[in-house]
């Protein structure tokens, strides 16, 4: 993350851009559409800075470090997972996972699985102890 802090004036300027989801004093969230445009233009051979300027961003406000780190992050995500790697999944995965109330059957199945796991661990430990005794003799 960049060390540059946005002023209120810069936040207002950035938030008017159609390719910005949200802006805070410490960070900016770009739209998925912008990320797609960025990757397409980058594959055509355009420079990172030029792509941002073309899409209406003031490079001086964003800072070169933030621009180039975003570029590296998006290109890496695109190489790993394609277009789906560029999606912002924070909205769907925010906070703790929801704990749903389990039915008695589900609770019973979990407890039985835990018991079976503990039994398997005990058997493994018995075999290890037996093997160690054989090695001592």
Can you tell me about this structure?
- The chain has a two-stranded antiparallel sheet.
- The chain is mainly alpha-helical.
- The model has no long low-confidence stretch (mean pLDDT 87).
Features:
single chain, about 140 residues, mainly alpha, two-stranded antiparallel sheet, 6 helices, about 60% helix
Q: Pairing-aware structural class of the strands and helices?
A: mainly alpha
Oligomeric grouping of the chains: single chain
What is the beta-strand fraction? 5-15%
Strand order of the largest sheet: 1-2
Spans of at least 5 consecutive residues whose pLDDT stays below 50 are none
Mean pLDDT: 87
Instruction: Count all strands and give the number.
Output: 2
In percent, how helical is the residue content?
55-70%
Largest sheet: 2 strands, antiparallel
Molecular shape: elongated
Radius of gyration: 26 Å
Distance linking N and C termini: 60 Å
Topology at a glance:
Layout: H1 8-15, E1 20-23, E2 28-30, H2 32-43, H3 48-54, H4 59-62, H5 64-81, H6 104-136
Antiparallel strand pairs: 1-2
Describe the structure in brief.
The protein is mainly α and 137 residues long. It has helices at residues 8-15, 32-43, 48-54, 59-62, 64-81, 104-136; strands at residues 20-23, 28-30.
């Amino acid at each position: 993350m960049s060390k540059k802090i946005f002023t209120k004036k810069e936040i207002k300027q950035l938030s008017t851009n159609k390719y910005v989801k949200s802006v805070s004093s410490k960070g900016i969230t770009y739209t998925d559409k912008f990320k797609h445009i960025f990757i397409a233009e980058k594959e055509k051979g355009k420079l990172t800075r030029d792509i941002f300027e073309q899409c209406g961003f003031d490079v001086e406000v964003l800072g070169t470090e933030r621009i180039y780190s975003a570029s590296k992050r998006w290109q890496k995500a695109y190489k790993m997972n394609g277009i789906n790697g560029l999606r912002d999944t924070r909205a769907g995965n925010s906070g703790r996972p929801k704990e749903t109330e389990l039915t008695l059957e589900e609770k019973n199945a979990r407890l039985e699985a835990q018991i079976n796991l503990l039994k398997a661990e005990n058997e493994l430990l018995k075999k290890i102890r037996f093997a160690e005794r054989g090695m001592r003799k």
